[in-house]
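hey can u check if this looks right to u? its 312 residues, i copy pasted from the old doc so theres a chance i mangled smth
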Amino acid sequence: MILTKVKEIMTNPNFRYSVSNFFKESAKHPYLMSTETAKFFSHWVFCIREEPKQGFRFEQHSHSHFSDGANLADIVDLLLDKRIALWSLTDHQNSKAFDSIANGKYDLNKENKTGKKFEVEVQSDKRALIIYSGNAQIVLLRSVEYCTDKGEINIHGYSGQIPKKIIRFEDAIKLGIDAGGWIAINHPYLWQGLAYLGRQNIELAAKIGAIAIEKNGTEIPPQIFCPVKASLDAKEFGLALLASGDAHKLHMYGMSGLTFNNEDYLAALKQCNGNHADSIKQLVASKNFETYLNYLTPKQFLDFFKFDAQLK
C-alpha cells in the first residue's frame, strides 16, 4: 500500500515541480531552506515539537466531515481537551458545519460520544458562535476554504453566502471582505495555491485586501520550499504569516496554529464590542500573535495526502 502511494507520488508531474523548486530555492536561500528542512527532521526523527506559547490558541485551517475531514463532534471534544479556544473550520466550498450547529440541525449533545454537555451561543452577526461545555468554551468562526480560478483561499469570519461555482480569485477576495471576513492565502506554492501559476497573484491578492499567508505543516520535503517562499512573500507584501496544520484527521488538530496573548485578545474583544470575528481579524492584521508549526511525518503525509494531476 505504501509502495503504491510512493509510486503514485513520484510519477506525478507535481512531484517533479516540487523537486525542481526545492533545489532552486536551496540554491537561492540555502540558510532558510536548510533551517526549515532541519526543523522537519527534528520533528520526525527526534520528536522535537514546537510548543504553543501561553494564551488563546487559534486553530485556523481545518476540515470536518462536512467536506473531507474528521467527524465534527469528535473534533469539538478534542479541541476542548487540548484547550484550544479559537477555531476556524474551513471546509471546502461550504460552511455547513457552522450553519448546522448554529441552526440546531447538528446537535452536539446527540452526536458526541463522551457524555459532554454543550450549549451554543450564536453571535448577533452570525459570523461566530461559542460552544460551551462546563468551564470550557470554543469560539468557532464561520469560515470556508474557497477554491478560486487560481487557487484556494480561506475566508474567515464571514456572513451571507458564497457562490458554489468557481470564480476569479480577485472577485472571491472582494466578496469575502464585503461579507465581513478576512482573507488568508492558503498553501500558496502547491498546485491549489495562488502562486502555483505565478507569484504575481500573491502581490495582487495583497493589494486587493488579503491580510495573511500561511506556512502549512503538511508541506514536508521536497515541498519544504513552500513555507520558505511564503515567509519571504509575507515580508515583501506586508502579510501576516500564519502557521497551519490544515487538519483533516484528528491527530492533525493542535499540531500547528496561532496563539494570542490573553491580555491582547481581551483588549481587542473589548474594542470590538465583544465581536470575536472582528477581534481575531484585528490581531491577525496587526501581526499580534505567535505561531507554532509541526510538520507531519512521512507516514502521516502518505496516510492523508492525495496528489491531483493538475490544478482544478
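The chain has one domain: 2-304.
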